[in-house]
Design a protein that fits this description.
Layout: E1 4-6, E2 10-12, E3 14-20, E4 24-29, E5 32-40, H1 46-55, H2 59-68, E6 81-84, E7 88-92, E8 103-104, H3 105-108, H4 114-129, E9 143-147, E10 153-157, H5 177-195
The chain binds adenosine-5'-triphosphate and magnesium ion.
């Protein structure tokens, strides 16, 4: 894997692949065990590539700007981004109270921790009330579980590019606030259905 030039860390060597989404691949960084580097993929499908071309050339930078401007009430739910450029971003890796790396909701499968679901609910309602249409937040692969103690689990969002209506301009119906609320509600219901153990 070829090295990349970063501002804060100098030359960085992506080491081991730890995850992958549609847009980016996430790697550990040689010599630093608290951060990971996300590289923007180049092997998009045509549809994705069009979407990326039209709207997401600045995705990483926009996500970084979003992090810096998050309201204090919900900032703790978002995993810090340290720096971002068009082709990469560097973020911290959440860890549990025992020092192990936190894992995604998806990798846990069913989650029964009440504190965790209370916090997810708070985040969801805050986003709705403030018209923050972060559709990709309510997704088991983008949401990690940071265990602060045996019983106190906390949601941490590792991907908040907001592929909202701006990301899908051809979905004209999403221009309406009521439609955006509906879409958020559907995403939330799906998250609960898939991962909440009552
Ligand atoms: N900070 C992190 N710490 C540990 N693993 C991470 C972190 N960020 C991302 N990952 C892992 O890498 C995967 C891909 O990262 P990310 O979700 O940012 O990529 P993406 O391509 O933007 O996603 P999407 O397909 O949702 O658009 C995540 O699903 C997760 O498993
Ligand atoms: Mg993702």
């Amino acid at each position: 894997m070829k090295q990349i030039n970063t501002r804060k860390y100098g030359q960085v060597k992506p080491e081991r692949k730890i995850g992958e989404g549609n847009f980016r691949t996430c790697y550990t960084v040689a010599g630093y065990d608290d951060v990971c580097v996300k590289l923007v993929k180049s092997d998009f499908t045509l549809g994705r590539r069009m979407q990326a071309f039209l709207l997401h050339r600045q995705t990483n930078k926009q996500e970084f700007a979003r992090y810096l401007n998050l309201p204090n009430e919900i900032k703790p739910y978002f995993n810090p981004i340290i720096e971002a450029e068009r082709h990469y971003s560097i973020t911290t890796m959440p860890r549990d109270y025992d020092g192990s790396y936190s894992r995604s909701v998806f990798s846990h499968g069913k989650v029964s921790n009440p504190h965790f679901w209370q916090e997810v609910d708070k985040l969801y309602h805050y986003l709705l009330e403030h018209n923050l249409w972060y559709f990709d937040v309510l997704n088991g692969k983008n949401m990690f579980i940071r265990k602060e103690s045996v019983h106190k689990w906390f949601p941490v969002i590792v991907d908040y590019k907001r592929l909202g209506p701006k990301g899908f301009p051809w979905q004209v119906h999403l221009w309406l606030r009521s439609e955006k609320r509906k879409k958020m509600a559907r995403k939330y219901a799906k998250l609960l259905r898939r991962h909440k153990l009552a």
